[in-house]
Amino acid sequence: MFDPVTLKLNVVPLIESALREDISSEDVSTNAVMPHPQAGKVDLICKEDGIICGLQVFEKTFQILDESAEVRFYVEDGDTVKKGQLMAEVYGDIRALLCGERTALNYLQRMSGIATYTHSVAALLEGSKTKLLDTRKTTPNNRIFEKYSVTIGGGNNHRYNLSDGVLLKDNHIGAAGGVKEAIAMAKEYAPFVRKIEVEVETLDMVREAVEAGADIIMLDNMSHEEMEEAMEIIAGKAEVEVSGNVTRENIARLVDLGVDYISSGALTHSAPILDISLKNLHAV
Asked: Which of 94, 126, 149, 215 could pair with 114 as two cysteines, CB 3.0-4.6 Å apart?
């Protein structure tokens, strides 16, 4: 759940922006059939099995439109839900329920889909020391929701944004003139409290990163044999992350490496939504 400060400063403005995208001047359909205030109720129904996530965002969407709106939840974020399950009842002005329905469901379906997919991937790492990480491959203006969903699904967050940590990728290394040069420049510039991570693609780059004193070495798109050799070169001198087209279908092959982290952009950019509906709207 988002804390009150984060909710007010970072979450609510994004929900309001999404509502403005959907309602540029008025909801013509709703105003046509519901010209006056009318208290109502609608059921939140799960249409497929998965992990539910985003209930606080779902609720806040309606409360922005109707301060008196109330959601009676029968589940919590992180719960396993089943097809046909009644997850909540939403009460409020029918006009607000109709206007906010799609935006609220878009958030809930997307966030639950990410949590569900992440949960299935994290299960493949159970029993190992390896932590599953997300990336910055998120939908613009939805990162806060998508990264939260990863944690609810059992994954962990990599850096939140470019201000959150030093990660020297191939183009940074190219701009600096080499691995050693990039790490030296980062150590000189970055505060001492920040770890320095460097992305490497060859075993020679691994050796350079170790010699230059990188804190974390990311093995990017290497073969299994190369990664095994890289682990021998690193020999505990740095933490190790594996990345590069990691999905639910292929992550199991990486477990035996014993790396500290595996990052997967697929957690956020390729997770399908979880099918959820609002049904049985009626006046009360």
From this structure: 149
Cβ neighbourhood burial of 208 (10 Å; 0-12, 13-18, 19+): buried
Nearest to 59 by CA among 141, 1, 117: 1
Decide: residue 163, CB within 10 A, 0-12 exposed, 13-18 middle, 19+ buried.
Answer: exposed
User: What tokens were used for 172?
Assistant: 């940074």
Question: Residue 129's closest CA among 7, 275, 231?
Answer: 231
Choosing from 20, 82, 169, 253, the catalytic residue is: 169
In sequence order, what are the residues at sequence separation of 6 or more whose Cβ sits closer than 8 angstroms to the Cβ of residue 172?
182
Catalytic residue check, 41: no
The answer to whether the predicted template modeling score (pTM) of the entire model surpasses 0.85 is yes
State yes or no: is 137 an active-site residue.
yes
- Which segments within 13-125 are labelled E, that is strand? 39-46, 50-51, 70-73, 80-81, 86-93
Contact (CB, 8 A) for 86 and 278: no
Catalytic residue among 93, 146, 208, 220: 220
